[in-house]
Design brief:
This protein is α/β, with parallel strands linked by helices. The protein contains 4 helices and 8 strands. The strands form 3 sheets. It has a 4-stranded mixed β-sheet. The longest helix has 11 residues. It is globular, with a radius of gyration of 16 Å. The relative contact order is 0.19.
Length: 173
Amino acid sequence: GCGDINSPEFINIDARKSSHIHIVTHNIFRLWMIPDNTADLIYMCHVLEHVPREKLSQVIKEMHRILKPSGKLRISVPDFDHIIAIYNDTDHQIELISPPLMGGQDYPENFHYEIYNKKYLEKILVAHKFGDVLEWNPFDVQFHNFDDWASKNVMFNNKEYPISLNLEASKLQ
């Protein structure tokens, strides 16, 4: 879901209504209104963690269906390895890692069902016919001229920590 971000380069999709959102749906498992092989780029920033584990494969397959051959799937998710670093560096304060780990829980869709690190997410992408899996930098990538969770850091004990894992993969034939 695009949330409050309104980027004119994208078709904005979210579960909540807003004037800039083109498609309002809770069902990203089947985006029937988007034809096969039409998108050059799909950007999912802090979306996959909101998908129940048993539905994850459906979502990745749907993104594959929508992308053109060699299209890019750009993903940002909370990085469990970063969350562990925060936990270890802050004397194991659970309350500091609970929101990025479990979601903000301030509205019905803001709960996390799954955790990711680079090894796990890359394995999922490769298993679903994506290749060339690389990390991407939100400050140095095309079509990312806005501030969202992909580029945010959090501050604890006067130390700044990244929170996101940013991976991009190409659709294989």
